[in-house]
Amino acid sequence: VYLGKKFLSVLRSIQGDDNLQSMIVGTVMRKVKSRTWKKQRYFRLQEDCMTIWYKSKKAGNTHSTFSVSDVEVVREGHQSEVLLSIADEFPPDRCFTLVFRGRRGNLDLVAESAEEAQSWIKGMRKLIENLENMGQKEKLDQWICDWFNKADKNKDGRMNFKEVQDLLKMMNVDMNEHHALRLFTMADKSRSGTLEDDEFVQFYKMLTQREDVLKVFQEYSSDGQKLSVQDLEEFLRHEQLESEGSQQRALELIDQYEPSETAKMLHAMSIDGFLMYLVSPDGSIFNPRHQSVYQDMTQPLSHYFISSSHNTYLLEDQLRGQSSVEGYIRALKRGCRCVEVDCWDGANGEPIVYHGHTFTSKILFKDVITAVGKYAFKVSQYPVILSIENHCSVEQQRTIAHHLSHILGDKLLRTTLDGHIADGLPSPEELKGKILLKGKKIGGLEASLNGAAEESIAGEVSDEDEVADIDEDHPHGDSMRRKGKRLSKELSDCVVYCKSVRFHSFKQSRLHSKFYEISSFTESKARKLIREAGADFVHGLRTDSSNFNPQDMWNVGCQIVALNFQKAGVEMDLNDGLFSHNGRCGYVLKPEFMRSCQRKFEPDNPQDREGYRPVNLSIQAISGQQLPKVNIKEDSIVDPLVRVEIHGVPADQAKQETRYIDNNGFNPIWYETLQFTVHVPQLALVRFVVEDYDKTSKNDFVGQYTLPLSCIQQGYRHIHLLSKDGTSISPSSLFVRVRITDVA
Fold this sequence. Notes:
Domain C2: 595-723
Number of helices: 26
Domain PI-PLC Y-box: 491-595
Shape: globular
InterPro entries: C2_dom, C2_domain_sf, EF-hand-dom_pair, EF_Hand_1_Ca_BS, EF_hand_dom, PH-like_dom_sf, PH_domain, PI-PLC_fam
EC number: 3.1.4.11
Oligomer: single chain
Domain PH: 21-129
Strand order of the largest sheet: 13-12-11-14-15-18-19-20-21-10-22
């Protein structure tokens, strides 16, 4: 790894850009939080072209910074609720929004002129694009450059030994002074007592030398210096279990990851190339072939797990949190395919969305639908389900139907696909680009297609049907129950394949339920049904909501397990893990034994299933790389341990952890093997967690990564860790060796 002239030339070309030059000089802009909170801040791009610095215009105030890599996208004009609220005060050509990754709030800004706004919009977009286009090697160069800038406190372009010692603490390295001085002296070729460009790179290279990777490299290298095509082919076949076309594959990997042109000409891979391969997507634990849609998408809708959000409109807690259209945008951009809309009567005949009978703020229904229409198919073309919780009067229900039809247009599914009643649900493939409404319906699908309710203005729905959801979510909601008995025909007609009905029993469902009917359960009722009739639960179309462990519901085939996307934690880690494959399209095909009515599956007794084939999962935790500091105390260094958790059917629920390593978050070494038996691998999720050990209190979370067992690549693999928010904390990673074998 070297701080190459290549990266510096990229830096110079960026700095030659007029927009970026303007950003480096700095600009005064208004930071806007609400219609009444608009304060001037001085913003500028730092010389590293990676950090935005800003502070109040008042002297003496502390400054703040954020990284360009934290920004996901730049929205131009009045494209946030906050900026829309001040649209009468500031024109759209002066306004823009920085949207951050994860759950961090947006930054809404108003520039002094349209020209200044354009400089920041175009400049930020160029920086984001440049970051996205960086190769693995350039990212490492960038990482080194960042550390150099952090360590070079007096900004003289060189580092003395004191600065190096401070750097080691920042990097989570606990190294005694003698060893640090030895590395410093070895790198200081000019004997100047400081490290400059290439000397710092040499120091960094000695610091980051991967003995664990070198050990594997030398095991397969014929001469200890390089891997020939045959050496690499043997490694791929024997260790990575990639037997198909392994010679061609070896040549491709050399061509893609080997930095030395000389080695490439010799069809060989150096240790640097080998490391580049291992930290790349090809060397990741997640199978890159599963990053695109690879499953059969032509099965009925009920044959899929569907990524689903509960209380989608909330950004915070359910009692006093802020309701926001941004909640829908964030959920849809994460691949969510079922969002909840809690509708109530609003002022001026306009329905509103909020968490009823709480202090959460309110937003207009039409604004929610506008956002859904705009963002529904940005990341996935497969259908979106709008789950309407209807508490409105008949008059405002008609307004809801009007907004759905006029705002969504052809995207809203208004009738069956071919105009006829089929004998089952259509597939995600057939419903591409369509938005489906889930809610109450007057009568059945047959009646609405035959025009039986043509003259009706509003219809009665039975007490039982109408209060199904209300009973569950609002046990004391008598007034709502009385208010909500009548349903407008216009809104009823918008419901096609997802008619909400009250659940009575599995027996009644088998005998009388229609394919387009869907039942919802609260967590407590779902758990009771799982205990009483787990096997019966597996067939049918159902939903569930709130943040509990979703795995128990998936185990019994629940399609729509709705989670609070705004709440980070193990539950959302599992949800992100399950839907991380199949192109992150929001639909994951259930295992075959859950789709066939002829096959019986009981989660509590997996060994009774036809085709039962348990596996042994062996994970050797080898090392960690550049784990982030979690304690803000300057002298604190992480004491990391690795925990591996299996989430699946009850017999598969298990966790094991390594010992902790004292004071080393930079390159801890474990070489510990954790073993698991997995009875239903098709449903198992594997969660890797790194924690900072604390003997006096609860361990601190460092990072995690969750994926389906079916997506794991075997062999020597890197696991690229994620934050609590599910965002990348590159270059933090784990290095592991994985083996999956049939139980003898």
